[in-house]
Prior knowledge:
Radius of gyration: 24 Å
Shape: globular
Oligomer: single chain
Structural class: alpha+beta
Strand content: 25-35%
Amino acid sequence: MSAASRTPVVIIGAGPVGVMAALLLARYGVPSLVLERHRDVYPLPRAVVVDDEVRRILQSVGVHEEFAALARPARGLRLLDARHRVLAEFSRSLDGHHGFPQTSMFDQPELERLLRDALERRPECELRGGVEVVSVSRFGSGAGPVRVTFRREGSAEEEHVWADAVLGCDGAGSVTRDAIGAVWEDLHFEESWRVIDVRTSLPVRTWEGAEQICCPTRPATFMRVGEDRYRWEFRLAEGESLDGPGGLERLRELVAPWVDLPRDASPNADFEVVRQAQYTFRARLADRWRRGRVFLLGDAAHLTPPFVGQGLCAGLRDAHNLTWKLARALRQGAGDELLDTYERERKPHARHVIRVAVAVGWAMTGGQDRAAAFRRTVVGAACRIPGVTAAVSRDLSPALTAGPLVRRRARLTGRALAGTFCPQPQAIIDGRRVRLDDVLGESFAVLTAVAPTAQMTAVATALGAPTIRVGDLGDDGTVAAWLASGRADAVLLRPDRVVLDTVPAGTGDFTDTAAWAPLLHTARRPTEDLPGPLPRSATR
C-alpha cells in the first residue's frame, strides 16, 4: 500500500457514537476516516432520550442549539403499578448541573442527520458509506499501526487502510470486539420486548415524562417523544403477537390506558404505527475495551437495558472520555498510560449504569414468584423516603473512580469534587451571556476562587490552560458554591470538564501533580505531520 493510505484514526461505525468521536477528534486537529456499511442514516427511531451531560457534549461540537430545536424536555420518570398508580417519581430539572434540561426526548434519525451535517463541515473528517469492515489487524508494538480491511458494497475485492488508532463504534455485533479478543460478561438480564413508535393526532393521556409500568404479567414503558410522536414498549407473553389480522385490536387493548382508539380507526390515519420491532434487552459488558491502539466504544463495549434511558448516553460518554486522551497521545506524544485511563474510568461507570437499569427492570417485572409483589411494595415505600428519588437520579452518572486522572483525597471533609463534572451556569463576559464551557475553552482549565499561587500558575502554563477567577464569571454564584461544597479553593478541569485535581481550602497548591503530570506530557516522539483525510482514490 502507498503511504497515502495511512490515516491517524479509523472509526468503524457512523452511528451517533462514531460520528461524535470524529467531531471531537476534529476539535483537537486529529483527522479521521469513518467507515459505515449503510449509505445513509438509518431512517427508523431507536434511541429517544439523552440527559444534560450529553447535551453538554453536543455543545462541545457546536450542535447544541440545533439539537434544542428538535428536542423535547421531559419532566422525569414515574414508576406505576399495574393499576397505573404512582409508586415513585423521579423528577428532572429543566436546568440541570450541565446547564441543560436533565432529560430530553428526540428522534434518533434527526440527531444523526444533525451530526452528519456537522461532520460535512469539518475538513478533518471523511465519512464513507456502503463499506463493510471485515477485519482489524494489529501489527508491531502497542503504538504500532493497525490495518483495517473492508469491502465496498457490491464488491468482493478486499481493500485496506492503515491507522495509528482504530475506534470500534460498530455496535453489539462488533467486528472490532472480536479483533481484540474481547468477550461479553453477562450481567444477568435478558428479556424480549416489542417496541412501538407511533404518530397520532388523538388525545393522549400523558404527564410529559416517561412511565414505567411495574407489573410481572404486563410490564410496559410509555413516553412522549415529540409533538405528535409517542413510544410504547411491552413485554409480550410467549406466543403473543401484534402481527396478523388481530394485531390492531390487540394493540388497541394495550394502549387503552393512554389513548382511546376508535373501533373504525385506520392504522395509518389517526394512529400511525411508524415502527414495530421486537428487541431482546440485554445487560452485558465487554471484558476488555482496548488492545494496543484499538478501542471499543458504545454498544461494542456495553449493552444497557433501556429502562433508565442511558444506552446512547453511555456511548457518547465513551467518546468524550477517550478522544481528548487519544488526541494528546497522537499530537503531543503522551504515553499509553494516559490511554489506559479510558477503560479504567469508563468501565466501572458503565457497569454501575447497567446495574441501575437492571434494577429498574427488575422493579418493573419483578418475576412471578410469591415475593414479587412484596419487592414492588418495598420499591414504592423506599422511593417515598425524602431524598431517595433525588439520590437515585444523581446516581445515573456517578463520579469517576479514583485513578491517575482523578486525584481524590482520603481525608477530605466536604463533598469530594475530583472525578465529578464542573457545573455549567451562564456567565457574563464583556456584557454577553455565555455558557461556562465557552469561557473555559477546549483544553484544560483552572478555576479558582482565590488569587492564583505560583504553583497554580505553573500548572496552568505547563498545560496551556487558562486560569479563570470565579469572581470574574458574573454567574449566579453556582461555581463558588460548588467549590465551597468540596472545601476547595481551586480545581484543575480536564478537557471533558471532569475535575482532575483540587487545591484544598487554605493550602494554596495542587498537591498531587507528581501523580498525574507524567501521563499528560510527552513520553515518546509524537506523530508528526498527521495526514488529513484520505483522498477518495487512496484506498481504491
